[in-house]
Specification:
The protein has 15 helices and four strands. The chain has 390 residues and is mostly helical. The protein folds into two domains: 2-49 and 189-385, no CATH class; 56-154, abc type-2 transporter like fold, CATH 3.40.1710.10. The longest helix has 31 residues, at 190-220.
């Protein structure tokens, strides 16, 4: 038994060393294992940085030309989100400015809006915006909503008799008091909401692509597995190689990137690292299982690169999983990034402990066991099928 154990350990360390050699001799694998985790988070973060847009150009079509319309334009221009670049004679002139990208929205103030308000009728503002840029639309829409609410409260206050109590004034201006509290995302930014999920997905996809490229390279060079009777040691040796490489990648992706760009960090680093361990293992085993069927390096891009968009939707960060059809919901449970994103967002963004994120943690360990068994079975099949020694 001791000789058997010694042989298994020898094979394990042989494959650990051998996989290091394969990784650092393969330029494509180095790109996926090193360059992709280093560069992609910075690229994504810079695209959404800063999270809030300010001074978005807006054109105004003032058909009322009254004191009230000038007050609306002045208050809207005073908000941080909008910058009124000028008043147009008609809507066609404003459309021309939008087509030239001189502005991204048009505010139309109808005629006699001041007279309607004096008759206690509802005044309607028309607002046209370019939906190709969601951040601009969101900022301008919220700014205009705040302006109209504040002006409406001021107008109701002017209709009250002089000398009324402050309580009556409060009831008239705000019958139902409300306070907006943005939880876990103080800036209401897209980056604080999206980038944490993208970081976990980058971690998984870089593992899958790198392992698939190494497997395709071995197939192209007509090499087979070294010891067909020691598949457990082979798989463990390669897994230790990937784990040692991804120690730095995990700390960089899940700790330093949020720190550099100021994203919410409320979780404990130890809890995040403990969560990332089954995340990496399940991704490695899943990639080892799938890469057996990859015969050429070109197939890697066709088979795995396009799945990134699918996986980000399956994670539930953009669309809740309970609202998905049953088939897609079941598929989301089979992807490690789904549970990795859920656990990481709960711990790092929402301040949960590992015990409170136990559902995702347990699911990742279950996927690790399932994909580990499947990886061993596919590796055994490949060993029996191969004809050339490494």
């Amino acid at each position: 038994m001791l000789k058997r154990l010694n042989l298994e350990i020898t094979v394990l360390f042989y494959y650990w060393r051998r996989e290091y050699i394969q990784v650092f001799r393969n330029v494509e694998a180095l790109v996926f294992f090193v360059l992709l985790p280093l560069a992609y988070p910075i690229l994504y973060a810079l695209i959404y940085n800063p999270e809030e847009v300010t001074d978005v150009p807006v054109a105004v079509v003032d058909n009322s030309r009254s004191r009230l319309s000038r007050e609306i334009v002045h208050n809207f221009d005073a908000t941080p989100a909008a910058q009124v670049i000028g008043c147009c004679a008609n809507i066609d002139e404003a459309k021309s400015l939008m087509m030239q990208r001189a502005c991204y929205a048009v505010l139309v103030i109808p005629e006699e809006i001041d007279k309607k308000l004096l008759r206690n009728e509802q005044g309607i503002l028309l607002f046209y915006t370019d939906m190709s840029l969601l951040l601009n639309y969101k900022s301008l829409y919220m700014a205009l909503t705040d302006v109209t609410l504040d002006m409406g409260a001021t107008m109701r206050l002017r209709t009250l008799p002089i000398g009324v109590s402050s309580s009556i004034t409060d009831i008239a201006t705000q019958p139902v008091p409300y306070t907006s509290i943005v939880m876990y995302n103080p800036t209401s930014g897209v980056a604080s909401f999206l980038i944490p999920a993208v970081l976990v997905l980058i971690l998984q996809q870089s593992i899958v692509l790198g392992i698939a490229v190494l497997a395709a390279t071995r197939h192209e060079q007509a090499r087979r597995w070294y010891a067909p009777h020691h598949i457990v040691a082979q798989l463990c040796g390669r897994t230790l190689c990937y784990l040692s490489i991804y120690i730095f990648n995990t700390i960089y992706l899940l700790h330093y990137v949020p720190y550099i760009f100021g994203y919410p960090q409320m979780g404990d680093v130890i809890d995040i690292l403990l969560l990332s361990l089954p995340m990496i293992l399940s991704s490695v085993f899943m990639a080892s299982m799938l890469s057996v069927w990859i015969r050429e390096r070109e197939h890697v891009y066709l088979a795995f690169v396009f799945t990134s968009v699918i996986f980000i939707f399956l994670s539930g960060i953009a669309w809740p999983r309970y609202a998905m059809p049953l088939v897609w919901r079941f598929m989301s449970y089979m992807v490690p990034s789904t549970w990795g994103i859920e656990g990481f967002v709960q711990i790092n963004t929402m301040g949960a402990t590992l015990a409170q994120a136990s559902r995702a943690y347990i699911a990742l360990w279950l996927l690790t066991m399932v994909y580990g068994i499947l990886a061993l079975l596919t590796l055994r099949y490949e060993c029996r099928k191969s004809k050339y020694k490494l």
